[in-house]
Amino acid sequence: MKLKDKVAVITGGARGIGLAIAQGYLAQGAKLVIADIDQAAIDAALMTLDADGQSAGRLMGVRLDVCDHQAIEAMVAEVSERFGGIDILVNNAALFDMQPVLEVTEASYDKQFNVNVKGLFFTLQAVARAMVARGQGGAIINMSSQAGRRGEALVSMYCATKAAVISLTQSCALDLIKHGIRVNGIAPGVVDTPMWAEVDALFARYEGRPLGEKKRLVGEAVPYGRMGRPEDYIGAAVFLACDDSEYVVAQTLNVDGGNWMS
């Protein structure tokens, strides 16, 4: 019970890695806020998390568009009123798009940076302000990607957003640690979630591959021998949220089966 009675907000928490982390946090005793843009997905996630009928009092769902500053502030206020404050933020909300460099549109650029960078930062800022006012410190975990460690020809904007997340993690950590707020990140590799069907289709389009081939190839290329699964990220997320990582600051932990070494 490393997170007993800690209040954790997980953006993009209704599916994939976010939902897996939520399940891990709940098992460790946390009170959970599932913040997601999809209300139906929130409702389904809350049902999954309370499958035993014993956890409803520790669960809260909030529809949140991280591109809406007022919605972020309202979420922080609502959670603080319900649970008394926020101890942990997992900045997981993100989206993916890809095109060759010569085909990147301003709309695609804006969409990715608005969610993956701007939304992440201002959610961090709003939660950090509440943590500072409360005076009990906290832990913030930003979800980056192995794409933030390198460039990829077809994924220039997404790579750039995830590199920005790593940089923001470092800068925010150095500024907030004086308040007892530890900021760190996790960089997943290729993860087998429903989103990969869309990613695979885009690679099929731009690389002229049959559907399913890109997913198979990237899985085979992972040194561990397979793509990641959402549950592979629970351990790292629990570690960075609990007191075991008290002296870990400004780091982005690679959890990718050996794809990237740094």
Automatic annotation (TrEMBL):
It is an enzyme of class 1 (oxidoreductase). InterPro entries: KR_dom, NAD(P)-bd_dom_sf, SDR_fam. One of its GO terms (molecular function) is D-sorbitol dehydrogenase (acceptor) activity. Keywords: NAD, Oxidoreductase. Its EC number is 1.1.99.21. It holds the Pfam family adh_short_C2. It comes from the Bacteria. Residues 6-189 form the Ketoreductase domain. Belongs to the short-chain dehydrogenases/reductases (SDR) family. PANTHER family: DEHYDROGENASES, SHORT CHAIN, ESTRADIOL 17-BETA-DEHYDROGENASE 8-RELATED. NCBIfam families: PRK07067.1, PRK07231.1. This is Sorbitol dehydrogenase.
